[in-house]
Amino acid sequence: MKLITAIIQPDKLDEVRESLIAAEITRITVSRCTGHGQYSDEDLYRGQKVVPNLMPKVRIDIACNDAFVDITVGAILKAARHNSGQGGDGKIFITHLEECIRIRTSERGGKAI
What we know:
The termini are close together. 19% of the residues lie in helices and 33% in strands. It has a single domain, classed as Alpha-Beta Plaits (2-Layer Sandwich). Helix 1 packs antiparallel against helix 2. It contains 2 helices and 6 strands, in the order E-H-E-E-E-E-H-E. A hairpin with a 2-residue loop joins strand 3 and strand 4. The strands form 2 sheets. It has a 4-stranded antiparallel β-sheet, with helices on one face. By secondary structure, the protein is of the alpha+beta class.
């Protein structure tokens, strides 16, 4: 089991969601968040260093069985990229999911996803 976390631009949420649904991935969690990625230099404003502002982003979390990892990542990549790609399009993190438990039935593991 894996946990796929994607940080994307807010304007791409609908496209990513539609792409996931087309790939038959329907169980997702979406959160609004802020952050910033790659900045080479701090800005200098009136002689003082200024840290870059946090930008609005969307975080998508998807727990899936190993067989669906490539399908899920492919659907996100296809829809989250602006044109041929630009800075700030986002990132995808894949982490091992040790256990999943469905509260309603107490099922564990892949069945609970």
